[in-house]
Amino acid sequence: MCGIVGYCGPQSAVTPLIQALRRLEYRGYDSAGIALGVRGKLFVEKRAGKLANLENALDIELPVVHSGIGHTRWATHGGPTDRNAHPHVDNDGKLAVIHNGIIENYSQLRLTMQERGHTFSSDTDTESVAYLLSDLRKEHNGDLVVAMREAVKILRGSFTLVAIHADNPDVIVGVRRNSPLVVGLGEGENFLASDVAAFINHTKRAIELGQDEVVMITPTTVEITDLDGAVIAPREYEISWDASAAQKGGFAHFMLKEIFEQPKAVADTLIGRLSDNKQIVLDELSMSVQEIRALKKITVIACGTAYHAGMIAKYAIEKWSKIPVDVEIASEFRYRDPIITPETLVIAISQSGETMDTLMAVRHAKAAGARVLTICNTHSSTIPRESDAVLYTHAGPEIAVASTKALLTQMIAVYLIALHLAQVNGALTDEQIEGLYIELLALPGKIEMILETVEPLRALTRSFADKNTVLFLGRNIGYPVALEGALKLKELAYIHAEGFAGGELKHGPIALIEEGTPVIAILPVADEHALDQKMLSNIQEVKARGACVIVIAQDGVHVEGAQHIIRIPVVSALLQPVLATVPLQVFAYEMALARGNDVDQPRNLAKSVTVE
Ligand code: AGP
Predict the structure, then answer these.
(1) Model pTM greater than 0.85?
(2) Tens digit of pLDDT for each residue in 358-377?
(3) CA nearest ligand 1 atom 4, residue
(4) 284-308 pLDDT per residue, tens
(5) Is 314 considered catalytic here?
(6) Are 203 and 186 within 8 A, CB to CB?
(7) pLDDT digit string (tens) for 581-603?
(8) Which atom of ligand 1 is nearest to the CA of 607?
(9) What residues does ligand 1 touch, defined as CB less than 6 Å away?
(10) Where are the beta strands (DSSP E) in 283-384?
(11) Which residues pair with 183 in a beta bridge?
């Protein structure tokens, strides 16, 4: 969740550092700071609050230096104050370090550092690392790289660390364990950052760093070594995004831009997924026919919105491939001793690929012998790198904290996996597969149709701006959609919102209905179970008790009892979530606007939760 940047090169370091931190603001933060590499003694400035506070503090005569590190902090240990902000500096005032993650053995480390005479000025876990690095550097002839290697051998937890020392200001050293760190390769200048958005306007050449790899950059060199000092060949790659993709593209907010990018994101994720002979192309799965046919169970693990994609996976995989599926909240999964066998396929779903709860669940599953397939939107992030296989969605950079286009592409990914499994184990014929794939191909156009008619919904939403409770009802595969609608509203409008299975209404939640309570119901597709009729009964029940009912219903479907109907194009039942979710995203977006909230960086939230 914290933003990490380092720069060395011909520019005056403050400019690229502040620019980079601004591009990382979307990660969510509550303080910021920089340290400049000045020979002999560092220049350090840090402030609680937004980046503007730091920029105001820097509006002074600054030393012209060409290297430095910068940080945006999302508070974990210690509140968001000036003194808890990073960088943290050793007692000589010469070594500065910034950190993303949690040092799990920091309290013991703090005691050890105090015993060595270091005086503390903050409540953070990171300050202990500044003193540890300072001592280790002195023990190793002033070599900051060796000091970093030795420090990592002592530290436990998840961290990205980047440090600089005033005696060698053109050298910046970094290391990563479970948290992201990438190198940006410029012309006569180099960058370190939590993610490529920080330097993409300077260079699209990047190097991914692996677990416990230590990197040293100067303006002209990049050296990567393991903890024993062995040199590691850089794994360079070209960033596929361009700088504009990480900007708002004319939309008021990243979230609105990303809602409107959904047709393209879905289309891109579907490209090339059906061969000429009607075979679903999922080479990434890298599982033989025998392995797929031997599967006894699939367990999906994820958090938040990605978990709702996992719930949809259950319906699709069981319906099409007849393989049993469990869906688990990642933070619960490993603590209940799940039954995992070699015939278990674990599917992790994560937009960022850095969610610590999901990463730890993946590790648990792998240690128990499961094969792990990850659905992810962020290339070379940690979770895909620790999985056996990865299916990348092609949503492009998702900057807004509230996930939208990533979710729809995750749905597409789970549909493709379900079809592939059904094709391999013979549960569906090639013709059935082709028919369903063609229906998937039609989804981008149908999403476009919804987006072209959102203005009335946006106006309607504003009429609910003063409401503090909104309920969402869904049945069958509409139930995860109801949960997602509620989550979006919680995280954006900061109001009490809950999603329920329609059949649960009379088992308690109906007591919540008061005069004027908004209830949004996702009307199922008519089927042999008459689920649509059951939902229409639910609508009557809540309306009879004063609810203001908004129904999401397909074109042409007769709806009784609703005050408002939001129409979506016709689609088969299992694919309806891709379309029904879009109006709920718009509803939450508009409620946030109407309530004056920060749409792209909602309070208390971060784009990627990289701590447990
Ligand atoms: C979604 O709107 C939320 N921001 C959050 O629930 C998110 O989906 C969750 O933290 C999982 O993130 P991931 O997909 O990057 O793992």
Answers:
(1) no
(2) 999 999 999 999 999 999 99
(3) 402
(4) 888 889 999 999 999 999 999 999 9
(5) no
(6) yes
(7) 999 999 999 999 999 999 999 99
(8) 4
(9) 303-306, 350-352, 355, 358, 401-403, 491, 608-609
(10) 297-302, 325-329, 344-350, 371-376
(11) 192, 207
Domain with CATH 3.60.20.10 in the chain: 3-243
* Residue percentage of the chain with pLDDT more than 90: 79
Instruction: Note if 322 is an active site residue.
Output: no
* Sequence letter at residue 603: R
Residues 6+ away with beta carbon under 8 Å from 407: 305, 306, 308, 309, 351, 484, 581
Work out the burial of residue 409: count CB atoms within 10 Å of its CB; fewer than 13 is exposed, 13-18 middle, 19 or more buried. Answer: buried
Specify the domain boundaries for CATH 3.40.50.10490 within the chain. 248-441, 453-601
Neighbours of 248 (CB within 10 A): 16
Residues making up the chain, counted from first to last: 612
Mean of pLDDT values over 65-93: 89
Contact 464, 518 (CB under 8 A): yes
In this prediction, residue 25 carries a pLDDT of 82
Q: Which single residue is written with the structure tokens 């603590």?
A: 335
| The predicted structure's pLDDT at residue 381 | 82
Distance 429 CA to ligand 1 centre (A): 35
Give the model confidence (pLDDT) of 129-179 as tens digits: 999 999 999 999 999 999 999 999 999 988 999 999 999 999 999 999 978
* Domain covering 453-601 assigned CATH 3.40.50.10490 in the classification: yes
Best of 409, 411, 609 to mutate for ligand 1, by most ligand atoms within 8 A of CB? 609
Among the listed residues 366, 370, 406, the one whose alpha carbon sits nearest the alpha carbon of residue 386: 366
pLDDT > 90? residue 452 = yes
Q: Whose CA is nearest to atom 6 of ligand 1?
A: 304
248-441: CATH, from 3.40.50.10490, 3.30.1950.10, 3.40.50.20, 3.40.50.300 = 3.40.50.10490
User: In this structure, which long-range contacts are made by residues 38-41, counting pairs with CB atoms below 8 Å and at least 24 apart in sequence?
Assistant: 38/63, 38/65, 38/166, 38/169, 39/166, 39/167, 39/169, 40/94, 40/166, 40/167, 41/93, 41/94, 41/166
Identify the pLDDT of residue 1: 61
Q: 576 CA distance to ligand 1 centroid (A)?
A: 21
CATH no. of 3-243: 3.60.20.10
Q: Does the pLDDT at position 449 exceed 90?
A: yes
- Best of 351, 409, 584, 598 to mutate for ligand 1, by most ligand atoms within 8 A of CB? 351
Alpha-carbon gap, residue 32 to 53, rounded angstroms: 8
- Which position among 2, 8, 303, 548 bears the catalytic label? 2
- Name the residue of 1, 308, 355 to mutate for ligand 1: max ligand atoms within 8 A of Cβ: 355
